[in-house]
Amino acid sequence: MAWLTLIIAGLLEVVWAYFMKQSKGFSLLVPSIITLVAMAASFGLLSFSMRSLPLGTAYTIWTGIGAVGAFLLGVALLGESASPMRIAAALLILAGIVLMKISS
User: Fold this and answer.
1) How many domains does the chain have?
2) Which of 6, 26, 73, 93 has CA 20 to 30 A from 104's CA?
């Protein structure tokens, strides 16, 4: 259960990061509200998963999901660069997530 909540928390981190960008510096109401709700839910689920997962493992995987997910969303929806260096960086983060999971 802790792993499932951690994955959902990481996905919610992608949601709040995307809607924070869409809020244009919290100047648009609906994206700002979605940002804050997703942020609170993400932190709450991260906190729940940390009850049974080690801090370093949970936090690394949560931020990794958020970082790689935000990168992919930025490329897919916002037209951000998918240069070889950025792709390599995302793959290294993904490798770190996998290694952290395997080591736990």
Assistant:
1) 1
2) 73
Q: Which of 26, 22, 7 is nearest to 69 (CA)?
A: 7
The C-alpha atoms of residue 6 and residue 72 are separated, in whole angstroms, by: 19
> Which structural domain, as residue segments, surrounds residue 39?
2-103
The DSSP symbol for 53 reads S
Q: Are 2 and 51 in contact (CB under 8 A)?
A: yes
Whether residue 10 contacts residue 69, with contact meaning beta carbons closer than 8 Å, is answered with yes
Q: Are 58 and 50 a contacting pair, CB within 8 Å?
A: yes
Q: What is the DSSP letter of 28?
A: S
Cα–Cα distances (Å) from 16 to 20, 41, 57, in that order, read: 6, 10, 21
Overall pTM > 0.85: yes
Tell me the per-residue pLDDT of 18-56, one tens digit each, with 9 for 90 and over: 999 999 999 999 999 999 999 999 999 999 999 999 999
